[in-house]
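Annotated sample (chain length 246).
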Amino acid sequence: MTGPGVCAPGVTKGSDVVRQYSGSAASVREKFEEVEGRVAEAARRAGRDPAAVEILVATKYVDVDHLGVLAEAGIRLIGENRAQDLAAKYERYGDIFTYDFIGHLQSRKTKAVLPLVRLIHSVSSLSVVKELEARAAGPVEVLLEVNVGGEESKSGVPFAAVDAFLEQAAVSEKVVFGGLMCMPPLSDDPEEARPFFARTRALAERLSEDWRGRYTFARLSMGTSADYEAAVLEGATIVRVGSVLF
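Output written by the structure step:
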């Protein structure tokens, strides 16, 4: 049985377990305000303006019928992982939310995603860059996903291949790289993620110099529910949280 503030049971699809979350607007708002406070404190510790950090709510496990709870709670920036879920939620809620795409993007899904989102966090293939160039009516801002831990199980451009990737992508004039996105290796200790966040920040700073006048790399999408404070300490401008709210 589910109800306000209770996680719905998993629904098994083959070998995958899909968890759907629901909750009351008051509960979500209270937890979101706690995240806001922690983000602000981390920013101040780093000598940064808390207003420079956006809190994106990842809604992969929030069913379309429950997304209205987030609107009630005052949340406006959400991130989706799947093109079909993004389309369904946009159709229901329209401009109530600002949508980012944060999941792995296949080139064949680019057409469906592009018109609905403010920002794509997860560009890591030249085929997607080419599709964006072909589909976009004007400049489209994206983040380059980097594989900061060199993990074979994760997508993203390896650090050693970033420069070559950008050289090839630069022929696509409408695609504008505005920053980086990363996922550090999984750990129970947020402090263990900090070197990976720092490495991503340093890469962004170097790329901003190398590509001055073309790309800025000012946005850093780093940190999830498990380590968002560590990410803010190392320069994140967007943190992606989900499970801490539901």
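Annotation: The domain at 24-241 is CATH 3.20.20.10 (TIM Barrel).
Annotation: DSSP finds eight helices and eleven strands in the chain.
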